[in-house]
Amino acid sequence: QWDSLEDYSLQEDALDKLFFILCPENKDISDVLLKVSALNDFYSTHIFKVFPMAKHIVALDVDERLRAGDVSLVADIQKISGRNRNHYSFATKYCSHHKPFDFPIYDSYVDRVLRYYRRRDEFCDFIDSDLKEYEQFKAILIAFRSFYGLEAYNLKEIDKYIWLLGKEYLPKIYY
Predict the structure, then answer these.
(1) Residue of 109, 110, 107, 100 whose CA lies nearest to 154
(2) Nearest 5°: CA angle at 171, between 131 and 149?
(3) Can you tell me the distance from the alpha carbon of 2 to that of 19, in angstroms, rounded to the nearest whole number?
(4) Where are the alpha helices (DSSP H) in the chain?
């Protein structure tokens, strides 16, 4: 079903080309600026000034940590020194687009679905704030996959599935 959403699947194809072929590393500020800008636009991550984020990522020297699947990298990317905004969702997306099978994406739909199934089936014991701690979030997602017998699916596939559930059954309500 996710693949039939033309805009989302084509945006993902464009991001794959950008992250895997055109700009796979994170050393050149221009490359990182392109990736931050594209992610911010496609995912509406609300980064109002992309240059400081791009500069922050380059300064972190993230390539080896991405290759290693170092989940602590999300926390390092999400907060820019001297700024109050928390870019947790963006940081998960940035890491995921480099290593989609190691870094699942956090967003509000996924958050709502995981909380819903915790209440309904008690698939995992966690508090809401655990979803905002990336290592715990990933463990909760893996527990979800295990509890529902979805081990045949990788984290990227689980992410798409949960996102679709949230978008369809637990949509955002705007007042």
Answers:
(1) 100
(2) 55
(3) 20
(4) 6-16, 29-43, 50-60, 63-68, 72-78, 88-96, 108-121, 134-147, 155-169
Neighbouring-strand partners of residue 86 = 79
Residue with tokens 């893996």: 142
**Closest Cα to residue 70, out of 93, 44, 102, 32?**
102
Dist CA 43 CA 106 (whole Å): 12
pLDDT exceeds 50 at position 33? yes
Within its chain, how far is the Cα of 95 from the centroid?
A: 7
Q: Which two tokens stand for residue 42?
A: 């496609």
140-169: average pLDDT: 94
DSSP 103-119: SPPP-HHHHHHHHHHHH
pLDDT of residue 81: 76
The answer for residues whose C-beta is within 8 angstroms of residue 40's C-beta and 6 or more apart is: 46, 47, 50, 90
78 closest CA partner among 68, 67, 86, 70: 86
Count of C-beta atoms within a 10 Å radius of residue 127: 9
